[in-house]
Amino acid sequence: MKRAILPLFISLVGTAFAAPSAAQFGEMTTLDSFGGPSSGTYKPTPAEAERIAWFREARFGMFMHWGLYSKMAGYWKGKKVTGGEWALKLQRLPIEEYRELAKEFNPVKFNADEWVLLAKSAGMKYMVITSKHHDGFAMFDSDASPYNIVDATPFKRDPIKELKEACDRHGLKLGLYYSHGQDWNEPDAYGNNWSFPGYKRNMDKYLDEKSIPQIRELCLKYKPAILWFDTAGDITPARAEQIARMARELVPGILINSRIQLGKPRGLPITDFDGSGDNEAFHQYHNVPWELCGTLNRSWAFKEWDKDFRPVSELLFHLIDAASKNGNYLLNVGPTAEGVITEPYASRLREMGSWLKVNGEAIYGCGGTVWGNEFGDFGTVDGKRKFIAAPANWRCTTQPGKVYIHVLNWPKDGKLELPALKQKVTKAHLLATPTAVVKIGQSADKVVLSLPANAPDPIASVVCLSL
Ligand code: H79
Known about the structure:
single chain; 467 residues; alpha/beta; TIM Barrel; Immunoglobulin-like; 8-stranded parallel sheet; 4-stranded antiparallel sheet; 19 strands; 19% strand; globular; disordered N terminus; binds ligand H79
């Protein structure tokens, strides 16, 4: 992934659209004719549209990877190891020894209110935390398996319960990540191919005795706003459907991500929103609600030695870029085994919050771009069909009657040329400095903005066009 401050040629995986704001902009929309594979029709029923509404409004959430692997912090027996939450499998560690980590997992500094308030200060509207990752250890009070934080650690508290209560207190939604197919602690589940030699797996047994009972518990105990599944190895379409139906019955309005099943997203009524790849946004506008999840440094789980934190410019770019393509940004934080979110994470989150305080109206509840050609297009390179990113130095989001231009690289001559708009631009102003003069030149084939000499924001300044 590129980390440049000027995100000009970003190489991403692609999918495409139908118009975001077609109803708003009618004829003006050019997206339908703009290449790329289609993500299909998206026709939610009124009830389905209503339950996803908060998610589209939110645009920005906090992802959290926290578990026994956080205790490793990137080391095993004093030696640096790769993988974070994947370390157990990548190193093929003896499962009995990994389980011992629970005896020392005691996050005495954990304070749910602090975490939630940090997310809130970043301008995030929801949180998704690992209730169980692939290692199989439940971070909640589970009746279905004693391998959980309440029964197997000296901590004995239920952080998911505490986070749910804190989210309710501070007005955030809580989503729960659950690894439903992969569980390296269980011989019957998918994923552990080193600890149980010669054992004949029985995936149905794992699903019926641990995975599905735990998902039921999550629904009943915490009423999550989202069930966030990942890596659906061995999950059949029938099982995905069974899980989704159960969750919807137990938690009216719950959202389910498309990773509940491998391959092409199932879509409604099974899944509410799509995901692009880990740390990889869709190339283009995507008409189905979707989410980009990404790391703040190079890891999902806390690693003491990973100090490669992304600059705020890159993080804000991902948020703006996702919103301009009709998507959300779920930005990950890896707390320590003591329950602390360290300063390199926290300071960047607070900076994002400061930007959103000024520019939030161009993110929250916004539709994606009115154009689409600022992202680039598919072309043939060396005989292969390839997405060729456009060198656009701006991104566009929309509200009824408003077009927001997020200027990433301030033009040296102050002139910003945009594609044509059919509706007349009646006013243009900068969100950061509303009194600064922005002149509008509009013709049949383009809109040219004459901006002040200096960018009001060093990372992204937003121009609001009123139509
Ligand atoms: O939870 C995070 C990952 O553990 C999970 N998805 C995100 C949200 C994930 N599960 N499987 N995969 C991702 C695909 C496998 C990626 C891997 Fe790797 C590449 C495993 C080892 C190398 C990513 C980088 C995970 C560890 C290092």
